[in-house]
Amino acid sequence: MPQISTLQSLIAGRWIGNEAATPLRSALNNSLIYNTHAERIDFDEAVTYARKTGVPGLMKLDFQQRAARLKALALYLASRKEELYAISHLTGATRADSWVDIEGGTGTLFAYASMGSRELPSSNVLHEGLAIALGKNGGFAGTHILVPRGGLAVHINAFNFPIWGLLEKFAPSFLAAMPCIGKPATATSYLTEAVVRMIHESGLLPEGALQLVIGGTGDLLDRLGGADVVTFTGSADTAAKLRVNRNLIANSVPFTAEADSLNCAILAPDVSADDPEFDLFVKEVAREMTGKAGQKCTAIRRVIVPEHMVDAVGTRLRERLAKISVGDPSVEGVRMGALASKDQQRDVAERLALLASGNEVLFGERDGFKPVGDGVSDGSFFAPTLLLCRDGMRNDAVHDIEAFGPVSTIISYNGIDEALALAARGKGSLVSTLVTKEPAIAAYAVPMAAASHGRVLILEREASVDSTGHGSPLPQLKHGGPGRAGGGEELGGIRAVRHFLQRAAVQGSPTMLAAVTGEYVRGAKVQESEVHPFRKHFEDLKMGDSLLTHRRTVSEADIVNFGGVSGDYFYMHFDDIAAKDTQFGQRIAHGYFVLSAAAGLFVSPAPGPVLANYGLDNLRFITPVAIGDTIRARLTCKRKVDRNRTDDKGVGQGVVAWDVQITNQRDELVASYDILTLVMKRS
User: Fold this and answer.
1) Separation in Å, CA 413 to CA 18, 21, 85, 303, 410
2) pLDDT the model gives residue 666
């Protein structure tokens, strides 16, 4: 008999667990593969370690440095992915299923590393928005900042995505300097343990940045405080129980839930069986039924179809499902694996029985279901099952009961309004898909669907070329939904990082606000010197370094020449009679000429240290510039971001944002904007 490993928890920097407790079995043949550990976890030690070791370690790094660690970690895990694929196989997942979990997880790390390096500062203070003047004299202003909370994040995950589930929560909380305690669902915790071991072995994270709990959470939630955060993915019932923990309520601990929901796909009435959209609809439903054996919180549970299309959709789905080979994913040709456990198999069977009562079974176990592979008769396999409900407005079960497996129900409707009403009967879902070829239908339906769904996919022939599909949450977009779906938000780009930070309003003089935010605020004190700011290397530049340029008077020749170069002969610049009838009462200069003239005033033409200008932000044209007006510019170093990168020649560089204000002879603001530049380092 082979030695069965006992899983271990990673607590306070050491691995705990030698005595076997709960047996964990292979989804493929029910053989014993691991045990959880029997040793009790000291959650006081875990929480104290996160606060006293994890938080200080993370705070020694800034946003940019933590983003760099995420990228390094993603590269490290990607180099060892085949080890994870081998273990993932035991969960019953196919290679494609495991790809979503394993490479979807590392891909999320890559995505947050990239977003962090582009959008976050080289500090631990994130300035949110522009400062707002709060007084008439310019000496008092206010703004918002986001800062690390100083607490820890507890991430409780479901069994279906043991790696992605951990990493998609870990990435934004790590960027936000929150040490994490991950608690995977027990059934597949062996895969989470494997990836956490790799992370620990990499040595890339500060001590205390990540801990792992195998087994129950004990009194962990009772030890959290207001600076901490809890996130949960799993059933709505479990979310409801955790949400009302007395300690979480008493200390106002943020609790975010992403719960299983009865997601839907709507075939719009404009689609016929001959349209490409019809095939896309059938393919998407079948993929969501069988991918991960239907064990996805985003899977399509309700297939909402026009009454006159029910037979066509049912026939095509039966044909497609009949071609799906189920069994051990190591057998060539197998496209659907097993449920995660025998308990899950029993749960799906019980819920299917409730759903089938009063509805028709169009396809299921009776239709030649026979898993392939050695020992699969003892595995946790389940037949893809398609039901038909002909009266969804009166049948509550199809909108209330979720069989968390390869089970979906076709529901007929009459008219798009009824389809949308059926979709809303799910009481809040993570995602819905609308398949239509008519933009007018999308414009009508999507705003209503969006009220009860966290994400809406519009699928038609044009989008299908690149579409990632109904069931794929993307790091750049929000994942979560209202009502039954938990009411929480995950992912969504840097939005997710903000969820783990504390927002505070700050009031004071512009000079003080600039000092706090690390970003120049208009009205703050500036530093002027004989050295042009563009002649300073990245390390030598300071926020507030500024240049007030000489003046330039705009002539008619400037306008004529710019029109000739640009091809812009808009009447406001060239037709004196028409211009007199406008709100300006005269011809005015091109806005982009004003920008170009300002650049001529402040640019230092010699090579380096400024290497390139790669964009403008927040551009506003405020006061028109007429012939004879005299303009000048103030250029001020607004923000520095050290991305810790070098070019192909090994020369270091950072990003500098410059505040530009262009004024006229009356000191009126003509235009304002930020210029983004790459600036060379001395080293």
Assistant:
1) 57, 51, 42, 10, 10
2) 95
Residue showing tokens 């610049």: 573
Q: Which helix (H) or strand (E) holds 504?
A: strand 501-508
Q: Which residue has the tokens 């202003």?
A: 141
Asked whether the CA dihedral 264, 270, 273, 279 is positive or negative, the reply is negative
pLDDT at 350: 94
Q: Where are the beta strands (DSSP E) in 260-368?
A: 263-267, 300-306, 360-363
| One-letter identity of residue 268 | A
Phi then psi dihedrals of residue 364, to 5 deg: -175, -150
For Cα atoms 182, 187, 191, give the angle at the middle one, nearest 5 degrees. 60
297 assigned to active site: yes
Greatest Cα pair distance in the chain? 97
Distance CA 116, CA 105 (A): 17
Q: How long a stretch of residues is the chain?
A: 683
Given CA atoms 373, 376, 377, 380 in this order, what sign does their dihedral have?
Answer: negative
State both tokens at 677.
Answer: 């530049």
Catalytic residue among 168, 258, 277, 460: 258
A 10 A CB-CB count for 451 gives 11
> In this predicted structure, what is the pLDDT of residue 137?
84
Taking 50 as the pLDDT cut, the residues of the chain under it are 1-2
Give the separation between CA 152 and CA 470, rounded to whole angstroms.
33
- From the candidates 168, 180, 284, 297, give the one annotated as an active-site residue: 297
Q: How far apart are CA 155 and CA 258, in angstroms?
A: 11
* pLDDT at res. 3: 63
State the pLDDT at residue 142. Answer: 95
Closest to 446 measured CA to CA, from 416, 426, 468, 479: 416
365 is catalytic: no
3-class DSSP assignment, residue 19: coil
Q: How far apart are CA 635 and CA 621, in angstroms?
A: 16
- DSSP structure class, residue 294: G
Looking at the DSSP assignment, which residues form a beta bridge with residue 588? 626
- Of 156, 214, 101, 168, the closest CA to residue 486 belongs to 156
The Cα 105–Cα 108 span in angstroms is: 5
What is the residue-wise DSSP string for 520-540?
Answer: --TTS--B--SS-GGGS-TTT
Mention every residue, 6+ apart, whose C-beta is less than 8 A from residue 49.
11, 12, 13, 208, 211
The first and second tokens of residue 470, run together, are 């109904």
CA–CA separation, 539 vs 541, rounded Å? Answer: 6
Q: State how far the Cα of 654 lies from the Cα of 522, in Å rounded to an integer.
A: 23
Rounded Cα distance between 656 and 121, Å, is: 11
How far apart CA 196 and CA 344 sit, in angstroms, is: 25
- From the CA atom positions of the chain, what is the Rg in Å? 30
3-state DSSP call for residue 478? strand
CB distance 658 to 636 below 8 Å: yes
DSSP 149-183: -SS-EEEE--SS-TTHHHHHHHHHHHHTT--EEEE
* Strand partners for 147: 502
Side-chain-side CA neighbours of residue 142 (13 Å):
6
SS3 28: coil
Q: Which amino acid type is present at position 6? A: T
CA distance 193 to 183: 10
Rounded CA gap, 662 and 656, in Å? 19
